[in-house]
Amino acid sequence: LLDNFRQILNERHADKLEGKLLSDKEFQRLLTMINGKGIFESARILRDKLPLKRDDESEVYLSFLDTRHWCKNTFQVTNQIAVDDQYKARYDVTLLVNGLPLAQIELKRRGMDINQAFNQVRRYRKHNYTGLFRYIQLFIISNGIETRYLSNNDGEFLKSHMFYWSDKDNHRINTLSDFTDTFLRPCHLAKMISRYMILNET
User: Fold this and answer.
1) Closest to 92 in 3D by CA, of 134, 144, 43, 131
2) What pLDDT score was predicted for residue 183?
3) Are 102 and 166 in the same domain?
4) Strand pairing class (147-151; 138-142)
5) Are 53 and 62 in contact (CB under 8 A)?
6) What is residue 202's predicted lDDT score, i.e. its pLDDT?
7) Distance (Å, rounded) from C-alpha 138 to C-alpha 121?
8) How many domains does the chain have?
């Protein structure tokens, strides 16, 4: 995950870096600056520009999400990312935007209670989400026939915060396949994160 994030940072900031890729020390300085934050602070950093001092004492501003040109972000899908720390975990599907995990999809077998997926995500939030996973903006939970989404936050994680997605005619979209074809289209996902998610410090 870190190597991929670093590679995309270098690619997206090629002009600003003037041909000099981020060194190991520079990348480590960046990680020190962006890791260990709360959900709100991580979300703020995601939408901001961050000054990074280079090894030659010059300064470069790095950005992590293009909030104006949604389709110009880099989108990737990963399956079964394994975390092997005190609490082992294996995440079903993670959507990366510019190398950062911004959306997490938790899947259960068709027909299973969707609350099992919600409870799984709640456990992950409590025990596993550290480092770059603090940048997750959205959770999507589904059993194939029922799909909901909810935003990440520093506060209490409540089932009442789960929402259905609807089409332009206000018809509810339930199945995972239909949700994927609408809500999770790359440009739309970046648009949702950029424009319609309100940062609330309280």
Assistant:
1) 144
2) 96
3) yes
4) antiparallel
5) no
6) 47
7) 11
8) 2
Which CB contacts under 8 angstroms, 24+ apart, belong to 56-65? 60/13, 60/16, 60/17, 61/16, 62/9, 62/13, 62/16, 62/30, 63/13, 64/98, 64/100, 64/135, 65/97, 65/98, 65/100, 65/102, 65/190, 65/193, 65/194
Question: Rounded CA gap, 60 and 26, in Å?
Answer: 11
Instruction: With beta carbons less than 8 A apart as the criterion, state whether 50 and 34 touch.
Output: yes
Query: Is residue 201 situated within a structural domain?
Result: no
DSSP result, 132-168: GGGG--EEEEE-SS-EEEEE--SS---GGG-B-EE-T
Per-residue pLDDT of the chain (202 residues; tens, 9 = 90+): 999 999 999 999 999 999 899 999 999 999 999 998 989 999 999 999 999 999 999 999 999 999 999 999 999 999 987 776 666 778 889 999 999 999 999 999 998 999 999 999 998 888 778 889 999 999 999 999 999 999 998 888 888 889 999 998 999 999 999 999 999 999 999 999 998 765 555 4
Residue 99's domain comprises 70-196
Q: How far apart are CA 5 and CA 200, in angstroms?
A: 27
Residue 55 in tokens: 């090894």
Give helix 24-34 / helix 2-12 axis angle, nearest 10°: 100
Q: Is residue 202 part of a domain?
A: no
